[in-house]
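Lab notebook page, bench 4
Experiment: in silico fold of construct C2
Operator: M.H.
Input chain length: 429 residues
Purpose: comparison with the prior construct
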Amino acid sequence: MGTADDSGRERPIVIVGASLGGAKAAQALREAGHRGGIVLIGEEHERPYERPPLSKGYLLGKTPREKIYVHPPQWYAENDITLRLGTAVSAIDPAAHTVTLADDGRIEYAKLLLTTGSVPRRLPVPGADQDGVLYLRRVEDSDRIKAALRPGARVVVIGAGWIGLETAAAAREAGAEVTVLEAAELPLLRVLGREVAQVFADLHRSHGVDLRFEVRVEELTGADGTVTGVRLGDGSTVPADVVIVGIGIAPATALAEAAGLETDNGITTDEHLRTSAPDVYAAGDVANAYHPLFARHIRVEHWANAVNQPQTAARAMLGGDDAGYDRVPYFFTDAEWTPRHPNEPVASRDKLSMEYLGYVEPDGYDRVVFRGDVEANEFIAFWLKDGRVLAGMNMNVGDVTDPIRELIRSKRAVNADRLADPSVPLGEV
């Protein structure tokens, strides 16, 4: 990078957040030819790993622990990357180009990338600090939930978002009795809208999940410091052996805010992932990045951003001003239930393999078009505004993400009847 510290040594690129995004950024820097120092700092004692398996395969016991890690342990030394785990950062000073550690150590940097991710929102009611009240963000959280999911256990999930529904499906597959409590009228209502949210509600109810909507959680009851139930606004109590809280996440912006960086629902960046401070970048969950395709800032809390944004940040840190991030937002979810009858093959009604592309605000569309068999759980849903496809979601339908992506990128109005007709190839719509 050509910038030296006080001793004359070249300053490294420092990455705060030993997450999927942080590890991918270090990889991208080396693949782009950077030969200078790279320091990757993380609070967790685990080397960087992927989070989606924590509520999917790993939670179900189908994905072995070693498979969740981004790189094998020797990869960091082989690529001359200094990996500092179990290390908290207490402050950053953009003017001095320094990072201060919790133990008062200090690292000078040439460029700084923040991949600090998000933190779970805490449940703000009495009793929420008791044993048996669990959140899912880190691998040890998934281990605790996995241990609690046993046959006959009374599991209450608070929040019917992606984490809530995925853990509910895992609990049902483990033989637990599952109740999901949601303040809205339907699950995922803000993300999917009423038409598609109803599909998810019907699917989970058909597999024995007790879904309760428009409820208010007043208190978590307990005995001897352990949770025993959830008291609702109507005075009733739902018995619980374990409570899993999934009411959303918040971007981890405390360091950025204290350093004076511009923040607004995350760390504000341009399309090159540059923040308001010179030589400071942000990527992944924490970045509220300007998106050229949608002409606005967007913060996406999903795996694809953590995988792909670091490549743009790496190119930008190495001087590539043409490196703008304009990928169509993408996320996925998976769930599978044991068939209702012995020896019956897994059917579409017993699995959920979903991919979503695009971006649409809750009130930003005027029509939803379905293509395929909604009853059989094999369909594609499209969100349209003025005839243009803003987003598309394929449920148990494979090999369609490319044409859906092109429909979104084209920004052209489509014929809704042809869009809904499975006999018309999507590439021709």
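Observations: The chain has three domains: 13-119+251-317, 122-247, 338-428. The chain is about 20% helix and 30% strand.
Next step: discuss at group meeting.
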